[in-house]
Specification:
The chain has 89 residues and is of the alpha+beta class. A hairpin with a 2-residue loop joins strand 3 and strand 4. The protein contains 3 helices and 4 strands. The protein starts with a helix and ends with a helix. The mean pLDDT is 88.
């Protein structure tokens, strides 16, 4: 079983910040456009696994490489099944 899990791919995404803008500005953007985010360089980043938040961290720059240091693992939400709910009642 463990060997099977080792082969499962997970997409990791690091969210540095976000921005909102009118669609007309987005459509006018071209190469070299700069999008200002609602974050600063020292803010925590959110780490997603397959689009689900699972950790927080900080950006670390080492020479020309960028990495993320995990500072907190998030608790997984409790998933209730119909059977679990029926047993609790």
């Amino acid at each position: 079983m463990k060997a099977d899990l080792d082969l499962v791919g997970v997409e990791l995404t690091v969210v540095l910040g976000s921005a909102q803008m009118p669609i007309y500005k987005l459509l006018r953007m071209g190469r070299g456009a700069i999008i200002e985010l609602n974050a600063s360089e020292n803010d925590e980043v959110q780490i997603l696994a397959n689009n689900h938040p699972f950790a927080r961290g900080h950006v670390v720059v080492n020479g020309t490489r960028i990495a993320v240091e995990v500072t907190e693992m998030l608790k997984r939400p409790t998933v209730y099944s119909v059977q679990t709910i029926a047993e609790a009642a």
